[in-house]
Amino acid sequence: MRRLVLLTLAALPSIIGAQTTGPVLTLEEAVQLAVKNNPTYLLSTSGRSRAGAAVRSAYGNLLPSVSTSFGSSYREGRPQFFAGQAFGSTSDVLSSSGDVSVQAQFSRASFANIRQQRANLDAAEADVTNAAATLRMNVITQYLNALQAQARAAFQDTLLVSTQAQLELARARQAVGAATTLDVRRAEVQVGQQQVAKLREQNTAELEKLRLFQQMGIEQPADVRLTTAFGIEEPSVQLQQVLDLARRSNPGLIAQQSRQRSSDAQIAAAKSNYLPTLSLQTGISGFSQQLRDIDGQIADARSDAVRGQASCFTQDSVRRGAGLAGISAQCGLIAFTPAQEALIRDGNAAWPMKLTRSPLSFQVQVSLPIFDGFQREQRVQEAQAGSNDARYRLREQELRLTADVTSAYRNLTTAYQTVRLQEQNSATAREALALAQERFRVGANTFVDVTQARSDYERAETDRINAIYDFHKAFAALEGAVGRPLR
Question: 80-82 and 85-87 as β-strands: parallel, antiparallel, unpaired?
């Protein structure tokens, strides 16, 4: 019986890994899935997209802007009267116009804005890196919480096996008159209480696993197994090493440094309002117009030809009367031909795309603001105040980083020493429980002594399990404070 109890108490590692069915999830797979699916982390990447668009826009301000327009209009064919005189066409008129314009503007503010937006992009990149580091720490911590709950549940299994073996021993001793009914009832109570403890720990393990998949941003598959193993090794890094590493690579600190540079560029942009701005502009445009009823224009052209021919013959008569050579042959050439009519119709068919180009124009302008109601001074003061705020926040971040890394490192070293002490305590409590069970078997003590020894062992072993996973959580917290993995 003693050998059975000792084997049961030593079976914790094998019971923890006894599950062999279902999908497998390692820690690195959990982190990768969280980076792809965690909504909070994905939300943080939106700032990087906006910052990248702002950088492209800042560079785009140095390029000329090109715009084009096209329009069309219709006017009814009725004359308009002004001072008793009729103006306008008696035909409906269709018209269209189009233009292409190019303009560019250059100032010192444009170049300062590029510096500012690039610094904002660096800050956004650092924010995403910081969010990824935070997510990794949270996933690792929750992965450890799930493993810790599973280990406690497995330990309760070993205790249940032990209490059941103790119940069998009490019944066997009662059968030979070496134990009382009270001892059997106490053993039965112990089994019942241990079953309740096992049920609670199993439920806690499932809940911690559920929270892990919540961190990952995906649904939990059935019977998933967490398989990553963590070893206990004394931390090899020194405090000054991790502090130097954090000051070089902590994404939160890098983001604040980038915002400091952005605020400095904003000061330069505000001061650039005292400098002139160069503007260049050019463009080309065209216009077309078409009468819906061209017959009146053709009739006018035909009448003009008839009047011109009549005038020509009159001049011919005058010339002949004066004894000069006649020009009747030339007068015969004056006529409105079908070709001329076709030419008029073709010239009228310009709407909507046969545009007549207007003259090309160029414009250069240099503007220098003289006084704007102290608005420039206000913008400069606000930019300087923003730069001071950024500098104070940077100093605050540096102090917080030093405190966080130092406290996380000290917690890690303390957690390692705690693990070693709890291992000794658990081993001692296990030996005490085995001794108490053996003494009860031979009748040297009571079942109360066994119950007390089992309670002591349960506390010691639970503390050992908690100390192991607290050590790994402390390591994850140190990595989170530094901003990058350390192992």
Answer: antiparallel
| DSSP string over 401-464 | HHHHHHHHHHHHHHHHHHHHHHHHHHHHHHHHHHHHHHHHHTTSS-HHHHHHHHHHHHHHHHHH
Q: Is 17 helix (H, G, I), strand (E, B) or coil?
A: coil
The one-character DSSP state at 200 is H
Residue 367 in 3-state DSSP? strand
Count of alpha carbons within 13 Å of 82, Cβ hemisphere only? 3
> How many angstroms separate the CA atoms of 145 and 322, rounded?
126
Which alpha helices (DSSP H) does 322-374 contain, by range? 328-331, 338-348
**Side chain identity at 78, as an amino acid letter?**
R
How far is residue 195's CA from residue 213's CA, in Å, rounded to a whole number?
28
pLDDT at 170: 84
Hey, what CATH class is 2-276+368-482 in?
mainly alpha
Q: Please give the C-alpha separations between residue 457 and each of 450, 451, 452, 474, in angstroms, as whole numbers.
A: 10, 10, 9, 25
The pTM of this model reads 0.73
Query: What is the location of CATH 1.20.1600.10 in the chain?
Result: 2-276+368-482
pLDDT along the chain (487 residues), means of 10: 36 44 88 94 90 91 89 78 64 84 87 88 90 92 94 92 87 83 87 92 94 94 90 89 92 90 87 86 85 77 83 82 76 80 78 80 87 86 92 94 95 95 94 88 80 89 93 93 87
Instruction: Give the pair of three-digit tokens for residue 341.
Output: 């009519």
Residue matched to tokens 């116009």: 97
